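User: Modeling request: complex.
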Amino acid sequence: MQRFALLGAGFIGSVHAANLAAHPGIDFALVYDVDPARAAAVAARHGARPAASLDEVFDPRSIDAVLIASSTDTHSEHLRRAADAGIAAFVEKPIDLDLAAARETVDHVVRSGIPAMVDFNRRFDRDHAELRRLVTEGVVGGVELVQLTSRGPASPPLDYVRVSGGQLRDQTVHFFDLARWITGEDPVEVYVAGSALADPRIDQFGDVDTSIATLRLPGGALVQIDSVRRTGYGYDERIEVMGATGLVESRRQRSGNVVRYGGAEATGDGLHAGWFERVQPTYAAALGAFVKALDEGTAPPVTLEDGLRAQAVAEAATRSLRSGRAEHVEYAASLDALAR
Amino acid sequence: MQRFALLGAGFIGSVHAANLAAHPGIDFALVYDVDPARAAAVAARHGARPAASLDEVFDPRSIDAVLIASSTDTHSEHLRRAADAGIAAFVEKPIDLDLAAARETVDHVVRSGIPAMVDFNRRFDRDHAELRRLVTEGVVGGVELVQLTSRGPASPPLDYVRVSGGQLRDQTVHFFDLARWITGEDPVEVYVAGSALADPRIDQFGDVDTSIATLRLPGGALVQIDSVRRTGYGYDERIEVMGATGLVESRRQRSGNVVRYGGAEATGDGLHAGWFERVQPTYAAALGAFVKALDEGTAPPVTLEDGLRAQAVAEAATRSLRSGRAEHVEYAASLDALAR
Amino acid sequence: MQRFALLGAGFIGSVHAANLAAHPGIDFALVYDVDPARAAAVAARHGARPAASLDEVFDPRSIDAVLIASSTDTHSEHLRRAADAGIAAFVEKPIDLDLAAARETVDHVVRSGIPAMVDFNRRFDRDHAELRRLVTEGVVGGVELVQLTSRGPASPPLDYVRVSGGQLRDQTVHFFDLARWITGEDPVEVYVAGSALADPRIDQFGDVDTSIATLRLPGGALVQIDSVRRTGYGYDERIEVMGATGLVESRRQRSGNVVRYGGAEATGDGLHAGWFERVQPTYAAALGAFVKALDEGTAPPVTLEDGLRAQAVAEAATRSLRSGRAEHVEYAASLDALAR
Amino acid sequence: MQRFALLGAGFIGSVHAANLAAHPGIDFALVYDVDPARAAAVAARHGARPAASLDEVFDPRSIDAVLIASSTDTHSEHLRRAADAGIAAFVEKPIDLDLAAARETVDHVVRSGIPAMVDFNRRFDRDHAELRRLVTEGVVGGVELVQLTSRGPASPPLDYVRVSGGQLRDQTVHFFDLARWITGEDPVEVYVAGSALADPRIDQFGDVDTSIATLRLPGGALVQIDSVRRTGYGYDERIEVMGATGLVESRRQRSGNVVRYGGAEATGDGLHAGWFERVQPTYAAALGAFVKALDEGTAPPVTLEDGLRAQAVAEAATRSLRSGRAEHVEYAASLDALAR
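Assistant: Request completed. Predicted assembly structure:
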């Protein structure tokens, strides 16, 4: 049994809490939140205890792993404390909105040797994982063209947009990661065109809500990612990978399988109303993979370095949004750090 | 070049006329109709000549084949004249609404040795033919359960219903034929339940417009055919064949590939508005297969005997509709005739 | 909180145990099984206690409801004890393989006034329920033709087949219920053709594994149900309802949304491997509906009478399998009983 | 009856010849080709006459319209002769590979006042046209994001690539036109990333066979077009248009509607083997629209100016391929010309 403490009891913390409680190999021990009442409520719902302090959380005698779902600006600090205490860490992205700071944190954690994993939960979508399996098995031949669609149903609140780092760092970063994961290659160059169409007020932060990113991989293959904050038809996520001999697609998912025919039309279930309806099972799957790695003493399937690299792509993408030209992706500093 | 005369210049005759004119291996020579003006109009449209008389049609010096698309009560007579003149014959179903009379005509024609084919055009539907190819290749293993759906968009006029022989002889007979063709077996028993729902007036003729037929094949496999005269959603035709190791389906066809997503729904092109939109290409394909057989001196792919056997199933089905029990299908007389 | 005791700790009992434990409005108190070790194991897994005796189970001071998932031959007895104790009952189908005995039990339970529900879990399939909602709202007009497909992936063991009552009472009965539920009508007549194709040994019990049932509803609408014990392509369940103005379909469900294109083919996820993968969520949904009715003091959404009526259709269907003719469905005795 | 002469009797000329012969409102009179034998053969097949000279073709006493399907380098000259003779012209794209020369030709033709149309046949695809109709009706709200996929099954021969003007001018130009047509807006900026993956030898011409273009429309909406010369799975063309309130899609088309289920997979008809199987009906539809405009004295639905504007986008796209940055699209000279 892995003894877990949860950091953060907001919406996403609550999702993790339910998964921590349901996992048969987890002893869900503690919940910490800056708001003690919120921690107490979540803990009570799942038979865990609220933590009196962070010292109680980062105590390796009673805790084996932390799940960091607190606000973004605390991720680095919590990761460092876990590393110093020798406690495994599962962390929501991003590690730090500042890439240089994130790199320093990752260096620190890697040197500590603790198992650590960033929660790129989209990798644990059943269909995306099956698509990657087929690509990796060579079913479509050498990859030449990849398309990813990431479209949410509703614009985030302005207050969230302001601190999010922008659409590319906040939303598209999951798909930069998927592109790396599916192709096994690190993009070398990225171009982005974007507009603020659904909520023009975000333009004041230099942000966009509708964007198309084009990535070039080392061997010349191309990746296209479209990101949309607000559709009028629900949550839309799909991937297709074209190789030299075929195409494989993880199709947009319908919310059901009912269709009615009348007159000249056929009408059926559309897409999921919200991102959570589609994505929910991936949180438990990602956590399960982390626990399995802890149990077996193997490396977690998503590393902090993966987090950094997707973030490096997002940085270059954000630069391109302003420069109007393709920008090189800079991974170097991080690699140097790892080589030290 | 096969020199063709067309008998009948009504709606279906006009369809055949266009196909006769377009086929590169056919010399479309003559058109005959009881209404000379109608014959002249169709002939003029396609560069053929109206025939002055039936004697001109059944003249083997100038005509190699007749396409019989005249009214049902003339089919037998035209077939016999073709047989006597040594002219090949392509005939719309049925050969004769009276099965015994049909058997005599077929015996006569078979003895003459002329190439003859009944126009079971559904066999020439691209998807149905592909389904049969897969079944015949054993892709689903031994056939165990077959489902066929035959649903038209509009009730026929009462005047047509009165002389049609009833839904089972008029509409379902095509699917009795498909069942035989796909499975390679002759049904031994048939049960039918039916109702007059769309147009209750047809009840006065003992007819139905909504029916379900269940057929038993010699080896125990079962076939289900639902037939509907009037849907509210266009023309609906589909087949599925389940065997011991899999299922193959010729799906209901949409009229296009456009779909729109909005709110919680996805709406797209429905089925074809009418039977002709779906079935049109099969007429040319059936005719093409007949001409190919003439050119190569091989047997036409659908025989008059096929027409008789499908009709024998329709007879038993019509008896079952009244008796409320499964009825044996009687093919015997016809087989005797062939064995003479 | 409704205090539940579970009767039966076999496979399906274990499924119910997990749902009892996860439901926030249920206090999962007791587990009883003829094998005390099995009861203890299931109880331990979910924080319940094994019951020392049936007396402990049927004690209204500590138990509000029983979930009867024990062997079929105990259902009647458990239902009667629940009725006598004033404890609500949720029971797996059938109430009793002998229809007359089942009727007596239902009469007894109805007179007691306890809330009781039979677990026709297919009604709680999300897609089937949506289909029924649309039909009930009149989206397709008056119902004219219904098709239901019930196909499992594997023949049951011979030992199970022997005591199952036959395919129609064991498997198809769920779909007789769905037909009643969707149309709101009681079938008046049923014809069945069947064969033993997948496992010919079941013929010794007079049983079949491949069958087609045709039902007639009072207003003339027709229902067709095909039931298959063993497919070569997974678990296949679908429904379509045609009305005067349209069609609504609960489509066969794929196990995923991945498709690959290569050469001239497109290959994707097929159906679910087993019935449980498809049906699992419906058990929790059915239980939830029962608890909701208990909490609100309303009638459970599926009554024991529903169980009887579906069983009455199965009886007539079984008679038809032998007689080769359409058989009338006899509901009368039960109605008399209710009227007493 | 419009009297037509066909210029060019190669592959695409032959396609047009069949459509000219089949159109009831066309008198297909003449065929001209630099190879007189080729002209004679095509003319004979369709009851037309080979033209002895270009003078015979451009004679307004006997010819009302020319269909220019000769080699690209002759389009401008033939257009000018048609303009000078007062004969209507239907021309394959491009007008001239040199944009400035094309502009001069268009100015010349426009001043002449003859009806002229460029053959952007993809506009006449049934599904694309239906998609545009829905977009134009406002079904998805204001357009925000458009995706177009253009993927052929086979790399063209090197000799063709050399003179084609490159993938963007030769292949993608059809989709630049579709983007303009669907949105009703002229792109202001374009970025392209491309690679030579299927046939690296084309790199010597500075050409690519796999590319992603990103276009910005005046209001900020974005368009993405991926173009591929060689897939391993047939001909793939699809469009989706996302607006503020919904999405509409013209889906990739399957070559049939057959699917088989076996084991855990479902396998069905893939895409069309070649571009011609998919695109064939659009040639007749485009020609039909041109003839209708001639008959009714209205403007043809695709103008030469449309040809120029799509070509202007292709020019900017080709510049971007080399510069690595977004390039402005220059339409100005042409507009000036029109304003003179």
